[in-house]
Records
---
Amino acid sequence: MRSKIVAGNWKMNKTLSETEVLVTELAAKLPDTDAEVMVAPTYVNLVGAVRYLEGSAIEVIAQNMHFAESGAYTGEISADMLLGIGIETVIIGHSERRSIFGETDEILAKKVIAALEKNLRVIFCFGEELEDRKSGNHFNIVSDQLKDGLFNLKPEVWSKVVLAYEPVWAIGTGETASPEQAQEMHTFIRRTISNEYDDSIAENVSILYGGSVKPNNAQEIFSKPDVDGGLIGGASLNADDFIAIIKAI
Ligand code: 13P
């Protein structure tokens, strides 16, 4: 059974004291929900967030990690470092990692394998650029991203994989994919996985939508049968907005 998930990707926002304020407010206001709720603060505030959220149902997750076990990788973080502070889930392949930090499909595939080998859960992000959507090439792009990033995985590790479809043109732009566009792509993603693996893996994987999800559009997007939740950027930085999005699921 796939789970519903609402995850807040804080990106490079919030100091430690701001992190404390936000997670404390979220924990206090968290509604009863059958969805998994996650927040992804920046690295240096992960330990703090884990402590502040002790006893809360909100999971603290990481925004990124390196594929190597350890070594001379200045500025990087390993899977063991995340595990060592109680982190069990990591986002990999966010479009900002791809476009700003040059992470290729090959690098991302290595990261996914490294995370899964350590039994971390992976939220794998992918999505097309505006030109791809305009030229009608978006399905090909997404299918290639899935193939390059994930289709070398053994079927049994798919229970630790969550997908996040984030069309780049909708990230931080205020422009959202319509609920129909999200549903259409999520159906395509499931069909692509089913063709490569089988129906059971395709049906059981959670597929989140990300890109300008806000309190006023969340419910409509989440109402689509193949949308299992959201990866939320800007609106996850405000407790009331994030709580409203959680309520929408
Ligand atoms: P926004 O919700 O700010 O568009 O960001 C989406 C995102 O990139 C989540 O990872």
Note: Strands lie at 5-9, 36-40, 59-60, 89-92, 121-126, 161-165, 207-210, 229-232.
---
Amino acid sequence: MNDIKVLFTEEQIQKRVKEIADELNELYKGEEIYAVCVLKGAVMFAVDLVKNLHIPLKLEFIRLSSYNGGTKSSGRVNAVDISLPDLNDKNVLIIEDIVDTGLTAKFLLDFIKTNFHTKSTKFCSLLDKKITRKTDIEPDYYGFDIDDKFVVGYGLDDDGYYRNLKFIGYKE
Ligand code: 5GP
């Protein structure tokens, strides 16, 4: 792990997660939501975020992938498992690890729009890599802006490794 340079410490991440949760608690006051965690990368963020949400919620998991082992988006989104309950008339909060090209976010938002008439749909991502965007997608909420670096840790992997790091970093 010594080859990983820290970008955001555990303390910075936890502080930011609580700030986003505060905003969401305000947004959804008096409402119920379905929180949809996009596996595998968003797992740590989703868990910490929902622990700080004080509203009635159900947590769902779906699995998508757009990377095929390398460190660049393949440009194609695979729906590995996208079984969801009936989201008609529900408030849906999608929880992602990072918006890079935006293709995954676009795929998911289109999927939800095509299949359900939700009460509301919000997209919340821990990281926003605006510089590599290839779509007009912007997350409604995000934790940190990052440059064009391949980051790992706190759920994000490199060939399956590093998801367990408490911080987010990159290889130099
Ligand atoms: P997009 O479809 O926006 O190009 O990419 C979204 C997915 O690509 C993310 O959910 C994430 O799994 C993966 N991804 C994009 N950038 C990075 C990165 O810097 N590090 C890691 N580990 N995964 C990334």
Note: The domain at 4-67+77-171 is CATH 3.40.50.2020 (Rossmann fold).
